[in-house]
Design brief:
The complex is a heterodimer.
Chain A lengths: L2 H5 L4 E2 L7 E3 L1 H4 L7 H4 L5 E4 L2 E4 L9 H5 L5 E3 L7 E2 L5
Antiparallel strand pairs in A: 1-6, 2-5, 3-4
Chain B lengths: L2 E7 L3 H12 L4 E4 L14 E3 L1 H6 L13 E9 L4 E7 L10 E3 L2 H14 L3 E3 L4 E7 L2 E7 L5 E9 L6 H4 L12 E10 L2 H7 L7 E8 L7 E7 L3 E9 H7 L3 H10 L4 H4 L3 E11 L10 E2 L2 E3 L1 H4 L3 E2 L4 E2 L1 H21 L10 H7 L2 H7 L3 H4 L8 H14 L9 H9 L6 H15 L1
Parallel strand pairs in B: 1-2, 1-10, 2-7, 4-12, 10-17
Antiparallel strand pairs in B: 3-6, 4-5, 8-9, 9-10, 11-14, 11-15, 12-13, 13-14, 16-17, 18-19
Helix pairs in contact in B: 1-3, 1-10, 10-11, 11-12, 14-15
The chains are: A alpha+beta, B alpha/beta.
Chain lengths: 90, 432
């Protein structure tokens, strides 16, 4: 089962407004390790031909990318109050 | 009204404890929770030790939505296709005052919030805190995401978890590094109670707590766990973030491999996934007392870094509750002298010690270092499984003595006798 299939079981209250996390991908270009690609447990970070691409839709707000990024490229915030992941069991 | 005696950021065990105790003492407190309901952003492995909460709400298990009292504790060293287990069961663990319960956080935290509200605390959900408000270096309030959302208080309690705003803004301590945290990924599997009882050798409402080292995380420092709830399993892995990013293995793949392991799959095969979750765990070891408070601000629970792992016990939620009690007591004392300055709150570390939070962390201060040893997660689990194999199997040729078995199992593991003795000493120092 892929992570996307698994995440169909996790409830999200999607905020169509501004993303809560933004990544300065210009800083990623010189990064040799790119630990975000490995460590994010919901695969929000993907490497494509034009570099690191971040999509916030699956974010479970764990903070891994914020801490693991060696370049300080991740501008990390929580979603607005009431939005984002909403665990039903926890 | 936008003025309170105390503002508490975060409706988890730490913040709600502080709120409950202060409300009982007649203080005006507000708890700010960013989620839709308390617990909606919270995750832990699955076990709550009873001790702290029982002091605050005697016999809480009669009222609280706990899952099962943990009767069986199993710790296993996992090799690729074998396991070696320590299996401890105690009938007393299924009677009051109990030792520990499995818990699902969204239900439990919501219940706990209702207790704080019943005592007089105000709960504001869907409310994010964006920044602190200062008056000459002292925290005097918070700016929330709501319109005209500035709130003021004598004291603010940061009970906002591992990614605490206080750490992110560098208010009371330096921010976390990959060496200070582990990442936990977890699934909730629905499984009928009878199937759980059959798979985990349980009767009635008895619960089990299984932890695994070795192949559970493929040698990465950390471990795997399975906890039995009433009709659901909590299964997951915890991995040191600094080691994870070096291995090239994704956490979600490690969890899937753990689930498929021949020793694990038979236990969970009837389970159907209901939720996938991930969360960070602060594991920096001993927290420096200085980083726990400043003028007008106290840090509790994960925000204060209060977790303790000795390999056998993994504590977090109970330390959060006890740190919440210590924070509330600190605030009660400070309000008598009307001094919420850094000096006025400086009794907090002593109270944390009295409530057992810092005392335990200081006592086991060598445990985090011992538990960093990579041999614990690869060489030793393989070693015990290989020695067990030699002990239990009959093979052609002359039988070997135990000494030969150990020597053979040590081969290729770079485990010299000296290293083994050193590790045993470190283990004793860390846990004794």
């Amino acid at each position: 089962m892929s992570i996307n299939d698994k995440l169909l079981r996790t409830r999200f209250v999607v905020d169509s407004g501004t993303p809560h996390i933004s990544v300065d991908t210009a800083l990623c270009e010189g990064c040799s390790e790119k630990p975000c690609l490995i460590a994010c447990p919901v695969e929000c970070y993907q490497e494509q031909s034009n570099g690191v691409v971040f999509s916030w839709e699956n974010c479970v707000e764990c903070g891994t990318c914020r801490i693991v990024c060696p370049r300080g490229a991740v501008n990390w915030n929580y979603p607005r109050g009431g939005f984002g992941v909403c665990f039903r069991y926890g | 009204m936008n003025r309170f005696d105390a503002i508490i950021i975060g409706a988890g065990p730490a913040g709600l404890t502080t709120a409950l105790v202060l409300a009982q003492a007649g203080k005006e407190v507000v708890v700010l929770e960013r989620g839709e309901y308390p617990g909606s952003k919270n995750m832990f492995g699955g076990v709550l030790y009873s001790k702290g909460l029982h002091e605050l709400i005697p016999h809480f298990w009669d009222k609280a939505p706990v899952e099962r009292p943990v009767a069986r504790w199993v710790i296993s060293a996992l090799d690729k296709e074998a396991s070696f287990s320590l299996d401890y069961k105690n009938a007393r663990y299924t009677e009051a005052p109990y030792n520990a319960f499995t818990v699902l956080r969204s239900k439990f935290d919501s219940w706990y919030a209702r207790q704080a509200e019943a005592a007089g605390a105000t709960l504001l959900t869907e409310t994010i805190v964006e920044d602190f408000i200062y008056d000459q270096q002292r925290v005097v309030g918070v700016k929330t995401g709501r319109e005209d959302g500035e709130l003021y208080a004598d004291v603010v309690v940061a009970a906002d978890g591992v990614n605490s705003l206080a750490a992110r803004k560098g208010v009371i301590k330096k921010d976390l590094s990959p060496d200070d945290v582990s990442l936990g990924v977890k699934e909730i599997l629905a499984m009928p109670a009878e199937s759980i009882n059959r798979a985990f050798s349980l009767t009635g409402n008895e619960g089990a707590a299984y932890t695994f080292v070795g192949a559970a995380t493929q040698g990465i420092p950390g471990g795997g766990f399975i906890y039995t709830n009433k009709d659901k399993l909590s299964i997951g892995i915890v991995v040191k973030l600094s080691s994870l990013s070096k291995t090239g293995r994704r956490p979600e793949d490690l969890l899937e491999d753990f689930k498929q392991h021949p020793m694990i799959w038979p236990l969970i095969k009837e389970g159907e996934i209901r939720e996938y979750l991930a969360h960070l765990i602060p594991e920096g070891g001993q927290t420096s007392s200085k980083s726990l408070y400043k003028g007008g601000l106290l840090a509790t629970g994960d925000a204060g870094g209060f977790t303790l792992s000795t390999g056998f016990r993994v504590e977090g939620a109970n330390l959060a509750i006890m740190s919440g009690m210590a924070a509330a007591e600190t605030i009660k004392r400070s309000s008598r002298s009307r001094d919420f300055s850094e000096k006025g709150l400086s009794i907090y570390p002593d109270l944390l010690r009295q409530y057992g939070v810092l005392a335990d962390m200081e006592k086991f201060r060598h445990a985090p270092n011992f538990l960093k040893n990579p041999r614990l997660y690869q060489s030793y689990p393989e070693l015990v499984c290989q020695i067990s194999n030699a002990l239990f199997s009959v093979e052609p040729g002359p039988k070997k003595g135990i000494g030969e078995m150990v020597k053979e199992a040590r081969k290729g593991k770079q485990l010299s006798r000296f290293e083994i003795i050193k590790d045993i000493y470190a283990g004793w120092r860390g846990l004794a």
